[in-house]
Amino acid sequence: MNENEIKSIEKYERKFAEDPASFNDYEANDFIKLLKSSNNNDRAIEVGRTLLSSAPSLKMYKNQYGYALYNKFINIDDDKIEANEELFFSVLKDILDVCKQERYSPVEAAVNRAIKYLTNKSKVDHDKVLELYDLLDVNLISDKPFTSDEGKEFESKKERHYRLKVKELYDAKRYADCVEFANQALANITKFHFNNAQWVNYYRACALVELGQNEEAKRIFLELNNRIRGINFLEIIARNEKELGNTKVANAYTIYEFFLSGLKESLMPLYNRVLEMAKDAKVEAVINATDKFLQVLAKESQKDYTPVAVVETEKNASQLYDDLYNSLMDNLEKFVDRQEGNVLHYNAANKYGSISYPNGESVFFRQSDFIEDEQVRRRDRVSYTIIETYDHKKDRLSSRAILIETIEPDFNFEF
Fold it and tell me: What CA–CA distance (Å, rounded) separates 402 from 383?
């Protein structure tokens, strides 16, 4: 502190000792502000409490007093809060009783610290967390994005509030409230940062599923596919289609996920879903191939698996994976709807094109979605399965051909 600030504190201390009620708004605010900025939070709190009783008409100092409480009792490590949780929430109540949610107020910071503390616990009390969220008026939270010294923008406080509360509402199983608050977020935030809009939409769609509105959720999941790292949307879409009663459509997404994924120990849940799909369709060849593969893979990776039928084999998991792949592709028509058409157009440089569809239209394809790595030529006859996708350029649902096989021409020469 500089010399003038020290002298000001000394002057205020003398006046405070004589008569606390003699302070005006500016003096009270400046006194506590100076104490707080000199890291003397204890004295700032003591002065603030005295003014609350001695000068009830004063208002300006209250945010400074609230921040002194925040610095000493709220903005501390989780282990210190846990050691005296009752005191922590008692002081939080004191801040909320004295201060309003406004600019330069500690209310938002204090409530958010309490939320962070509760959500860091191993077992989260979602109802209690939401009680804290409800203490804040989202309309009063700043929507100004944080900007770094380099000029890079980050989410605003309001955007963050929406994002985290939407998730919390979903985790608390308050699905209707989750959808409503997500809709509010999407309507009120004009510019989302990073993938915040996707996260809000994701929890909105998950809540819609829980509310039985699977068709509406389906469009959102298709739009979000490949947009959020770590979320397996092919599995989510497959599960949603199955709940809608579209078994063959669900199978298409499951098989396509298998087709794209390859052999990985971490994908045992996927292989188990393939097994369940084969059981539901009663395709014995695929049941047996999957079961053998899973038995050996579980043994090699030291994971648990309950066999359908115990088998002895000299093949390793990699060889059995190839057997499973071939069996699955050989039996596609038992799991999914298949169409036939001709390659109408193919861009060899970009490796995509279009295939004729029975209704006279065409459907998009990528060369990488051919089951065999083969040369693609215009007019080739192919069989394929259609799945729904999302066209982000045109902002609408679309479709594409997957699991494509070339149909060899049947030459019958008579002599």
Answer: 9
Query: Under a CB-based contact definition with an 8 Å cutoff, are residues 225 and 234 in contact?
Result: yes
pLDDT of residue 253: 98
In this prediction, residue 264 carries a pLDDT of: 96
Task: Locate 51 and state its tokens.
Answer: 């003014």
C-alpha to C-alpha distances, 176 to 179, 198, 212, nearest whole angstrom: 5, 19, 11
257-313 pLDDT per residue, tens: 999 999 999 999 999 999 999 999 999 999 999 999 999 999 999 999 999 999 999
Taking a C-beta distance cutoff of 8 angstroms, is the pair 413, 378 a contact? no
pLDDT of 156-191, one tens digit each?
999 999 999 999 999 999 999 999 999 999 999 999
Q: What pLDDT does residue 374 have?
A: 86
What phi and psi values does residue 323 have, to the nearest 5 degrees? -60, -45
Question: pLDDT tens digit string along 197-239?
Answer: 999 999 999 999 999 999 999 999 999 999 999 999 999 999 9
C-alpha closest to that of 405 among 362, 354, 360, 370: 370
For residue 214, the tally of other CB atoms under 10 A from its CB is 20
Decide if 377 contacts 408 (C-beta within 8 A). no
Q: How many CA atoms lie within 13 A of 147 on its CB side?
A: 5
Q: How far, in Å, CA of 12 to CA of 44, rounded?
A: 12
Residue 414 pLDDT greater than 60, yes or no: no
Per DSSP, helices labelled H in 70-143 are: 78-83, 85-98, 107-119, 126-133
Residue 156's alpha-carbon distances to 95, 140, 329, in angstroms, are 23, 12, 49
- Residue pair 273/254 in contact (Cβ under 8 Å)? The answer is yes
Q: SS3 breakdown of the chain: % helix, strand, coil, rounded to 5?
A: 60, 10, 30
Which phi and psi angles does 362 have, rounded to 5°?
Answer: -130, 160
